[in-house]
Write a structure and sequence with these properties.
It contains six helices and five strands. The protein is of the alpha/beta class and 189 residues long. The chain has one domain: Nucleotidyltransferase, domain 5. Helix 1 packs parallel to helix 2. The longest helix is centred in the middle third of the chain and has 20 residues. The two termini are 32 Å apart. 34% of the residues are buried.
Length: 189
């Protein structure tokens, strides 16, 4: 007698942190089926100062979490900025986003941009446009080009799905494509 494992759907909140525009996406996972629930951006340019931006990030992300009830938050790690002050501000935005997730009880995982791009396209140096095109292909959806920050957030959520599913190796490198195709024939349709 075999015991059938029950598949329970869960949602992943992907975050592409920013101090002027923060991208977010909610992806639902049901077994190996993926569905984009929502994606968008939080525009912060109109806020009067950096503290107001951070407060807005915290409040709006909590509202998104309350609305969609994700289990996990996957967030992109800042790795580059034109100057040190920009990097510090970006790090604060990421920290506030993480604090919002922790406060709401989410499991938080951070991913480097190259790992995210590798998980989506197979190329750690892919452009935002290449990432968006591959996500459209994988999820069979059309993503408007004005939402590239939201698309980056969706890419982070997709990377997290791959990590949780064991489709990415523990060292962050994708398993070879022949074994992926062999183990996931339905994902290629």
């Amino acid at each position: 007698m075999s015991i059938k494992k029950e598949v329970v759907p869960y949602k992943i909140l992907g975050i592409d942190p920013g101090t002027n525009i923060l991208g977010y996406a909610i992806m639902e996972v049901f077994g190996s089926k993926l569905k984009l629930i929502t994606h968008g951006v939080i525009k912060l340019k109109g806020e009067e100062d950096h503290q107001s931006k951070l407060k807005e990030i915290f409040l709006q992300l909590q509202e998104i979490i309350e609305t969609y009830l994700p289990k996990d938050m996957a967030i992109e790690a800042p790795f580059y900025a034109k100057n040190v002050q920009s990097l510090l501000k970006l790090g604060r935005a990421q920290g506030v986003a993480i604090a919002a997730g922790i406060t709401m009880g989410l499991d938080i995982t951070e991913y480097m941009p190259k790992k995210v791009k590798l998980a989506v396209t197979g190329n750690g140096n892919a452009s935002k446009e290449q990432v968006a095109a591959m996500l459209e292909y994988i999820l069979k959806i059309k993503i408007p080009s004005e939402y590239l920050d939201a698309t980056d957030a969706l890419a982070v959520a997709y990377c997290h799905y791959n990590q949780r599913s064991g489709l990415l190796g523990s060292a962050g490198k994708a398993k070879d494509w022949s074994s992926f195709i062999k183990n996931n024939p339905k994902r290629l349709k």
